[in-house]
Amino acid sequence: MTASSKLQPLVKDPDRLEARLKEIPPEPGVYFMRDVTDHILYIGKSKKLRSRVRSYFRDKHELNPRIALMVMQVAEIEFIVTDTEAEALALEANLIKQHQPHFNVLLKDDKKYPYLCITWSEEYPRIFITRKRRAGKIKDRYYGPYVDVHVLRSTLHLVKRLFPLRQRPQPLFKDRPCLNYDIGRCPGVCQQLITPEDYRKIILKIAMIFQGRTKELEDLLMKQMEKASEELNFEYAARLRDQIRGLQSLGAEQKVALPDDTVSRDAIALMADDQHACIQLFQIRAGRLVGRLGFVADAQSGTPGAILQRVLEEHYSTVESVEIPSEIHTQHELPEGDMLAEFLSERRGRKVNVFVPQRQSKADLIEMVERNAGYELARTQRFADRNNQAMLDLAEALDLPDLPHRIEGYDISHIQGSDAVASQVVFIDGLPAKQHYRHYKIKDPTVRSGHSDDFASMAEVIRRRFRKYAREAAAETGKLAVPPPKPDKDFPDLVMIDGGKGQLSAVVEALREMNLLEEVKVVSLAKQREEIFLPGESLPIATTAEQPGVQLLRRLRDEAHRFAVSFHRQQRSDRMKRSRLEEIPGLGHHRQKQLLAHFRSIDYLREASPKQIAEVPGIGAKMAQQIYDYFHPQFRDEFTEAELQSQDIPAIEEPVT
Q1: 578 pLDDT band (50/70/90 cuts)?
Q2: pLDDT over 90, % of the chain
């Protein structure tokens, strides 16, 4: 079943809506909400599909604003019936991952909390901390998000001391391992002195730590140590003993007073205001707090119980079965707690209980989690208040009609014109939105090594950024058949240029050429005195460096500078690594290797004649001449007739004068 573009939303066609609702069976399954363009708006599950879907259109006054907006756009409803509620939950999780509907977004991905990633997709997996959870490679595993990045870094640092791991992202030497191998910190991954199978066994042990299975790992290492001692392998046994002691030190001061230390349990609670809901998930294994995860959700997305339900569903759908505890304590009653318990029990292979604790000791645990969630909410509110104050101050200073929701910053980076690049960074509501960052390579032929032009480079970047809006005036005058796109959600409320009046004038001229000077609000921030310049003004506006709005622009400027410099360094490094032979047209990688193997270096190749170059296997006379001409451009047109004949190239007769 698909929706047609001619259909109107179901709320505007009551007869078709009622007929469609009657077709939905009262069975467990998954339902799809589609708009008039056939895009999926929302994917949900229910143990009774008909009742759940009907509730969207019957109890409109009880819907939160986000879901009410979605209901107004629904033009078609589809469904898939399943045998059990647990199957519906599993199917919903997979479909949401596949389609990622807009209205299914609950958790805010603001890069607030870090993850730990293990790249199982690689032959020798890497372990690193990241704030961006990527879904590109299915085999890679992410653990978190962790609330305390300092604890996470110290844990990873200890892990790298206890277990032999790759310590460098790139090898230090080409033909031998570095000092880390000699002192036992690295197993020699760069020279493949350890097989991928043996290295993965080490990574599996480390993964157990971040899965909350530290006690299980200690028992495993204890058995291996005893076996090594019996076999008189005392050096290996001592290394295992040190690993056990290090693991015991991880949670030595994290004991949680609970009556049953043998039960693994998770406890979840939240605190919310009108906008944000901060959720804390405590992972307790063998009476120890082994992990504290944090989530931020939209407080208007549902009731507290519904938010906790969705957080648990999203969290446990991404973890391995061994990470699912036997008990889950929740602050509020979940609307579909039985379905979640059945789904988790099926995944774990053992009984999983989900309930609101009533006994004093377990209720105290929930109270502790709730208190920590309150601290996180207070911190979130402070950040939000600071950003709102900064945007309000900036709007007043620049006389903006509204708060600058989206601010873009631009900067240029190069070394005397070489490898010139530009950066575009985006702040949304005062926070970096790295998913919208963009790099530019300067294409202006006048900008080259030894000759830089920041004014022309900045103007080029602005033209490329706003060129899709530049046809506005032509469309209004009737000279353009197809009108340009109107400013959309990616159109900035404010553009900040890193530089002084010169850079600002170049940008203003570029916007004037595109007839966008009235639509794009642009300012520049000079580095020397942190002065803000407006178009057409010779003097900076009256501000101080301590103003919240100026500090916001400074954070934006510093981020644009960092992003531009890092990209410039990358381009410069790539250029230095490239062989000059790659610049010769028609000379592939294989023939480059043949040339270097024959002449040993670029210097010897430069001194060779075309005849000597042609002696290399696979290099003909024509290609040899091209290579020679590349290294000797000044002699290209100065061959004598005898030299031309020796190369079987017809001579060019001089014209008679």
Answers
A1: low
A2: 26
Model pLDDT for residues 31-87, shown as the tens digit of each residue? 999 988 888 999 988 889 999 899 888 866 667 777 788 888 899 999 999 988 888
Position 637 pLDDT exceeds 80: no
Cis ω before 145 (30° cut-off from 0): yes
Task: Give the Cα separation of 457 and 443 in Å (integer).
Answer: 8
Say how far apart CA 91 and CA 213 lie, in whole Å: 28
* SS3 annotation, 418-478: EEEEEEEEEEECCEECHHHCEEEECCCCCCECCECCHHHHHHHHHHHHHHHHCCHHHHHCC
Rounded CA-CA distance 316/343 in Å is 10
Does residue 1 have a pLDDT over 50? no
Domain-wise residue ranges, the chain: 10-104, 115-250, 265-380, 406-575, 580-646
Contact 309, 330 (CB under 8 A): no
Count of other CB atoms within 10 angstroms of residue 130: 13
What is residue 386's predicted lDDT score, i.e. its pLDDT?
Answer: 87
Q: How are beta strands 327-330 and 353-355 bridged, if at all? A: parallel
Residue 4 has what pLDDT? Answer: 42
Helix (H, G, I), strand (E, B) or coil at 356: coil
Q: Which two tokens stand for residue 583?
A: 């610049």
| Under 8 Å between Cβ of 186 and 180 | yes
Which pLDDT does position 650 carry in this prediction?
Answer: 40
Q: Are strands 494-498 and 406-415 parallel, antiparallel or unpaired?
A: parallel
CATH topology for 265-380 is Nucleotidyltransferase; domain 5 (3.30.420)
How confident is the model at residue 477, as a pLDDT?
52
What count of other Cβ atoms lies within 10 Å of the Cβ of residue 345? 17
Could you please state the CATH topology (level 3) that the domain comprising 406-575 is classified under: Nucleotidyltransferase; domain 5 (3.30.420)
State how beta strands 40-46 and 29-34 pair. antiparallel
Q: 10-104 sits in which CATH class? A: alpha beta
DSSP character string of 261-288 = TT--EEEEEEEE-SSEEEEEEEEEETTE
Task: Assess contact for 395 and 548: CB atoms under 8 A.
Answer: no
Residue 286 has pLDDT above 50, yes or no: yes
What local confidence, expressed as pLDDT, does residue 3 receive? 41
Which DSSP state fits 255?
A: B
* pLDDT averaged over every residue in the chain: 83
Predicted local distance difference test score (pLDDT) of residue 489: 67
Amino acid at site 182: D
Burial class (CB in 10 A: 0-12, 13-18, 19+), 268: buried
Which amino acid is located at 259 in the chain?
P
Question: Identical fold at 265-380 and 406-575?
Answer: yes
pLDDT recorded at residue 511: 92
- The CATH class of 580-646 is mainly alpha
- 226: tokens are 């005893």
- Residue 353 CA to residue 338 CA, distance in Å, equals 9
573: number of Cβ within 10 Å: 11
Q: In what order do the strands lie in the sheet containing 76-81?
A: 40-46, 29-34, 76-81
Mean pLDDT of 274-289: 85
Length of the chain: 657
Query: Which of 448, 420, 434, 463 is CA-nearest to residue 571?
Result: 420
